[in-house]
Design brief:
The complex is a heterodimer of chains A (219) and B (302). Helix content of chain A is 34%, strand content 26%. Chain A has helices spanning 43-50, 76-80, 98-108, 113-126, 142-154, 172-187, 199-205, and strands spanning 2-12, 18-28, 32-36, 58-63, 66-67, 83-86, 160-164, 191-195, 208-213, 216-217. In chain A, the strands form 2 sheets. Chain A has a 6-stranded mixed beta sheet, with helices on both faces. In chain A, helix 3 (98-108) crosses helix 4 (113-126), helix 3 (98-108) runs parallel beside helix 5 (142-154) and helix 4 crosses helix 5 (142-154). By secondary structure, chain B is α+β, with helices and mostly antiparallel strands. Chain B has helices at residues 2-21, 23-57, 73-85, 97-106, 111-115, 135-146, 159-200, 202-210, 215-259, 270-296; strands at 62-67, 89-95, 125-130, 151-156. Chain B has a 4-stranded antiparallel beta sheet. The radius of gyration of chain B is 32 Å and the shape is elongated. The chains are: A alpha/beta (219), B alpha+beta (302).
Chain lengths: 219, 302
């Protein structure tokens, strides 16, 4: 079943920069896909289009059979809840502890506090941070912050995990750990889409590779 | 529905926690709002007290009904019967023309003048005490009595009531204007407070939006914030007035002992207090709503 489908998508930013041109790509449910390419090739933009953080200038983006372009603004939050997002810059909230960071998506989707806490602890356990639930994110190492970001992305059990450079700035050991985590999610049926230029990780996980060069699909 | 209620409860407790996290800022905000509200509320309390004082200590309003010179005893009798049956009056007294003349004569310096008159120029009269005190009601009575047969003229000593009415109306306008100006100030204060809140929570708002928060979810804690500091400000104003009255009434006690009358200022009635609190809450909420509308759309990811 097709989970995410882009057809003839163009993205031009205000000011004239053409980030993506004529991208057609379809991702099946349960697939593990790496979007690769050098910095500035348009990998992040592609992920943002999938999560309706950006809108295409031309072409259509379809998620779960829904055309993102024609979605009413009120519908966008509910579309986004299908995704778990791992951001390149983490976007952790430093004014609250690890546990509360993971609770945020559950609060947003209206989980009861008790059920939410149970799931948050399960997610933290999964990424090996349960013992740090009371810690402030600022006190965590880079790898731990990345894992916290993943815990927050998967805590509401999204159907798709979109991760932008999840192993960037991490040494090989941490990167391998993150890679294993992503593979585990994929193995339980989550569609995982990664934007990365970590070819070592690709060699280990053997995902479907989609390369972008200068805003276009390479192959 | 249960989820919706739980979401509200969570937004409420989160807001309380946020307020408690910055106790000094919260205290200052509430004090500023409280002071702004205490002014019009205080004036209102003074006005309400003046009104009730005026009601308690003003003389009963009286109407004087003068009969025509040619009114016979039968006419006097018929008017007396009508007055007895009338339910708008407390009491009345008949002043025959001879008695009026005698009273006039007893006044110093007038005896000679009156002695020079060939006949009594004074008419028979009724002095009537009305039940109602308001100027409009007295006017109504006057026109009614003036329409009766053999009534030449009706005088109402309602000038005092009219003046008081005007003065109190003026006072009410002043309070209203003051309240309007300070309500505006309150909205401006919450608007700005919420603007700062939004700026400090910018990251949180951005992340929440990215992971699927609805606008309502993001707006909710800020609206609660406005409503809560509005209500707390209203309560502060109430307490300020309460304290002021406590001091003031203490000072009034020796004075009222001297005059032999109970002079004490009363606080807002229960209903007025609740209305004032609700009003303050609504203003805070409104200021927050304006601010959220203005500032949340400013950095909307999509």
């Amino acid at each position: 079943m097709t989970h995410i489908a882009l057809s003839n998508v163009h993205k031009r930013y205000p000011g004239g920069h053409q980030a993506l041109a004529d991208i057609s790509l379809s991702i099946e449910t349960g697939e593990l896909v790496f979007i690769t390419g050098h910095s500035g090739a348009g990998k992040s933009t592609l992920l943002k289009l999938m999560a309706a953080i950006e809108r295409p200038t031309a072409g259509t983006v379809i998620v779960n059979g829904q055309n993102v372009g024609t979605l009413r603004p009120r519908g966008i939050p509910f579309l986004r809840r299908n995704f778990g997002l791992v951001f390149q810059d983490h976007k952790l909230l430093f004014d609250r502890n690890v546990f509360e960071n993971v609770m945020l998506p559950l609060d947003i989707s209206g989980f009861s506090r008790r059920e939410g806490a149970r799931r948050a602890r399960a997610a933290l356990d999964k990424v090996g941070l349960l013992h740090k639930e009371k810690a402030r994110p600022i006190t965590l190492s880079g790898g731990e912050q990345q894992r916290l970001c993943i815990a927050r992305a998967i805590v509401h059990r999204p159907a798709v995990l979109l991760a932008d450079e999840p192993t960037g700035n991490l040494d090989a050991g941490y990167a391998a750990e993150i890679g294993n985590l992503l593979r585990e999610f994929n193995q339980v049926g989550v569609t995982v889409v990664l934007a990365t230029h970590d070819m070592q990780l690709a060699a280990r996980l053997k995902p479907r590779l989609v390369e972008i060069r200068g805003g276009r699909l390479a192959s | 529905m249960k989820n919706w209620l739980a979401a509200h409860r969570r937004a409420f407790t989160a807001t309380i926690r946020r307020l408690a996290d910055a106790p000094l800022a919260t205290l200052f905000n509430i004090t500023v709002i409280g002071t702004a509200l205490a002014l019009p509320l205080g004036f209102y309390v003074i006005l309400a007290n003046l009104q009730s004082l005026a009601r308690d200590f003003s003389p009963q309003p009286q109407l004087s009904v003068f009969l025509a010179q040619d009114a016979a005893a039968a006419d006097v009798g018929s008017i007396e019967r009508r007055l007895k049956a009338h339910n708008g009056i407390t009491s009345f007294r008949f002043v025959p023309r001879a008695e009026a003349l005698a009273t006039l004569k007893s006044r110093a310096g007038l005896a000679d003048v009156i002695a020079g008159l060939s006949r009594n120029p004074l008419p028979d009269a009724f002095v009537i005490t009305a039940t109602g005190r308001d100027a409009a009601g007295l006017d109504l009575l006057r026109s009614e009595f003036a329409g009766w047969p053999k009534v030449a003229e009706v005088h109402v000593d309602s000038d005092w009531a009219r003046r008081l009415d005007r003065l109190l109306a003026l006072g009410r306008y002043a309070v209203l204007m003051l309240a309007a100006a300070l309500a505006l100030a309150l909205v401006a204060i919450t608007f700005n407070t919420i603007r700062l809140q939004i700026l400090t929570q910018r990251d949180e708002i951005e992340v929440a939006k990215l992971i699927g928060a609805t606008d309502a979810w993001i707006r909710r804690p800020f609206l609660y914030f406005g409503g809560i500091i509005g209500t707390a400000g209203g309560a502060t104003a109430w307490l300020m007035i309460w304290a002021a009255l406590l001091v003031f009434n203490g000072q009034l006690r020796p004075l009222s002992a001297l005059y032999g009358i109970p002079l004490q200022l009363a606080h807002l009635t229960g209903a007025d207090s609740v209305a004032a609190l609700l009003f303050a809450a609504a203003l805070g909420w409104f200021g927050a709503w304006l601010s959220v509308r203005r500032h949340l759309t400013a950095h909307n990811p999509i």
